[in-house]
Design brief:
alpha/beta, Rossmann fold, P-loop_NTPase, globular, 6 strands, 6-stranded mixed beta sheet
Length: 286
């Protein structure tokens, strides 16, 4: 359990400033440095810092060239809509970070001459105005928090979380989410939000894309959740849709960005930092 040269050098400086006899101060300084050093080495944190640096130097961290297979998926979606005589005015796209929501939204928008909006997580804490025509909306918590009856069709990207996480590391942007969020839980709730609504599921060939067209009477997500949970509408009204989805999956009612946080994410880093800090704090120059 060897401390980093950085913390040892900082301890030397602390000694010169008169903290040599204050073991607790030395320990806190060293532990903070070692913990920070450990956290900064995490793949997701490194990717985020690299992304920020590339933005500062005006470099594009993401590859904007789309594989031919993605264009094939777009053509399959267009053919599916055409088969049902659907000329969408509003579409909703959901999936975990890294699954390709923005890419899909951008290419579909180009195909249909629509605009697209990548919503921020702060938008998801309240009802968003989704009434703008000729618009595609996307977010990884879109279906669980918003009224999806606004959409002519909804598209869920049912990609394995391991693949989505690899893609986040490759693109670098949003890498910190890999360290902070429980991706499996994030996906399970999103997938449930997609599946619980009325409507047949169409699987886009050779892809992870799933589509539902809005039925004549809407998706009826809340009604279906009430029936599944055997709740009266009055009782269900005490909870948000996201909370009801958590309950339906056997969890306590939770909502918001923090509902998917890994509370023990940095426990190992902190423990490791304390041990290395203790070692560094006991360091004495010869």
């Amino acid at each position: 359990m060897t401390p980093s040269p950085l913390s040892e050098n900082i301890i030397r400086i602390a000694d010169r400033l008169g903290f040599k006899s204050k073991t607790s101060t030395r320990l806190l300084i060293a532990a903070a440095i070692e913990t920070g050093h450990s956290i900064l080495k995490r793949p997701g944190i490194k990717a985020t810092l690299e992304s920020k640096y590339m933005q500062l130097v005006n470099q594009e961290p993401e590859n904007q060239a789309y594989p031919e297979v993605v264009n094939n998926h777009i053509n399959s979606i267009v053919s599916f809509f055409r088969r049902y005589s659907l000329f969408p005015e509003r579409l909703g796209i959901d999936g975990v970070p890294g699954s390709g929501k923005s890419t899909l939204a951008r290419l579909l928008a180009e195909k249909y001459n629509m605009s697209w909006r990548s919503l921020d997580h702060t938008n998801m804490e309240k009802a968003v105005d989704l009434s703008e025509k000729d618009t595609i909306y996307e977010h990884h918590r879109l279906f669980r928090t918003q009224n999806i009856d606004n959409f002519d069709a909804i598209i869920y990207i049912d990609e394995p979380v391991s693949l989505s996480m690899q893609k986040v590391l490759h693109r670098k942007r949003g890498g910190y989410l890999l360290e902070l969020m429980n991706y499996e839980l994030l996906k399970n709730v999103g997938k449930k939000a997609f599946e619980v609504g009325d409507g047949d599921i169409f699987n886009v060939p050779e892809s992870f894309l799933k589509i539902k067209l809005r039925p004549a009477k809407g998706f009826k997500v809340m009604e279906n959740l009430c029936r599944e949970l055997e709740m009266t509408p009055e009782k269900a009204s005490r909870f948000s849709k996201e909370q009801l989805l958590f309950i339906s999956l056997g969890h306590r009612p939770r909502k918001g960005f923090t509902a998917y946080a890994n509370p023990l994410t940095f426990t190992g880093d902190i423990f490791d930092g304390l041990l290395k800090g203790l070692h560094a704090a006991s360091f004495r120059r010869s």
